[in-house]
Amino acid sequence: MNSRLQGLGPTATQQVMIAAQALDAGRADEADRQLERVLTAYPNHPEVLRMKAGILSLRGQHHDAVRLMQHALVQRPQDALYHNTLGSLLGTAGDYEGAIRALRRTCELDPKLAMAWYNLGVMLTKSVRNEEATEALQRAVTLAPDHIGARALLADLLRTRGQVEAAAAEYRRLLSVRPTFGLAWWGLADLRTQRFDANDIAQMQAALKRSDANENDRIAIGFALAKAFDDEGSYAQSLQALATANATAQRYQAWDAKRFSAGVKSVADAFVPPPVGSPAPLGSEVIFIVSLPRSGSTLVEQILASHSQVEGAGELPDLPQVLAEETHRLGGKPIPQWAREATPADWQRLGQRYLERTARWRSERPVFTDKLPNNWIYLGAIRAMLPGARIVVVRRDPLETCFSCYRQPLDASSGYSRSFEALASFWHDFDQNVSRLATLHPGHVREHSYEAMVADPEPHIRQLLAFCGLPFEEACVNFHENQRTVRSPSATQVRQPMRKDTARSQRYGALLNPLRAALGLPAYSE
């Protein structure tokens, strides 16, 4: 650290160090106050720029953060920590491939930096490259056996493989070392195969009050505690725990609902009427599954991935990254502008780029699924790039969907899940957009009802397979027997037979009337 502060005066050095501590704790405003005067006096100092980049990232200004960090890295190109920071910022911005490149460079420069191996494991996991992720995380644990973040993520990977008991045992070991470790508490909650007992609840409540619990710990513990209260039928207490956890998370995950809605509409409008897309019938190899989170999309993917011709690839980042690459190539021109100017040859090039990026998912089976939920925003682009692709829109009851999102510690890109009003706005954006696109592209977009399938599985599974151009296979009805890796909050659920008693909102009764009101639904009555 001292060498990186070289060139700063004593006061500036102290302020940067305080800013770094505040940044590590997630306190962006405090870090910015400490850095303000330093930045004025030393506007090009690489360490000052690195701190400022971190602050911008916490505030959601991801592209500015990356740009500033790249400027700092020019001055310290052989500094492993700087490459590590750039990798983290790129990952937060959603550029997982860029993040992986930066973090691999970090590991080359300093192979003994456990933090870099851990961060690389995180980004590989987000890119659904689980075997490579496991290797990177094991390197991190070898270098730092007490790196509980790496151990927790390895436990998560055990869960994705269906090794529930082994995952639970690892989470418990982590909590014996650090009782405030929120990721382990939530990992246990997310297994959904066992209930917390009174002792667990007492431990979580105590952990929330401890000074060594950071804000991220408190958020994750809050969601786990809510799950524990829900399991025992204490619904008011569960809802209060959720409100506290979401309010804390909201401070770090700002969400501008009006701006998001305007952006979604702008993208959708750019594809009405539909442009003349790729002249080549690209995309017959892919089935896109889009939805809001917690709508049953993992179940649909598990059904399709149980077919002998289909590889379940999970939540792939490739489509939005191909579109982002085109925006970057065109000097930052936003999608709604360049989409109107794109030629059929452009759409074919983008479709081929997507298929190149996803080629590994067709190495064993001819068809694969892409289940990134928010791809519903880009339905028009999918149709232009990949006219041969099938698009399955999974719908679930809006109250159940929104409440389930509210109960889940979704990632930093899901700030809409922190309040009932933002959730309702997000759901309406989804509803309007997919309804409009399904009308424009009949025969290519299928709206799939989660409730209808749960009520009468086989006929709806047959219809789903027929839409996807797949012959019926009995394995698709017995999807729960498929032991494939599933990386989503529903990983444990899709290894169980389909259950019909999945509605949760009725248990909460009038407690959810504020969410009903936000969605425009009638209030609960006995």
Automatic annotation (TrEMBL):
TPR repeats lie at residues 80-113, 114-147. It comes from the Bacteria. Gene3D superfamilies: P-loop containing nucleotide triphosphate hydrolases, Tetratricopeptide repeat domain. InterPro entries: P-loop_NTPase, TMTC_O-mannosyl-trnsfr, TPR-like_helical_dom_sf, TPR_rpt. SUPFAM superfamilies: P-loop containing nucleoside triphosphate hydrolases, TPR-like. It holds the Pfam family TPR_16. Keywords: TPR repeat. This is Sulfotransferase. It comes from Dyella kyungheensis. The lineage of its organism: Bacteria, Pseudomonadati, Pseudomonadota, Gammaproteobacteria, Lysobacterales.
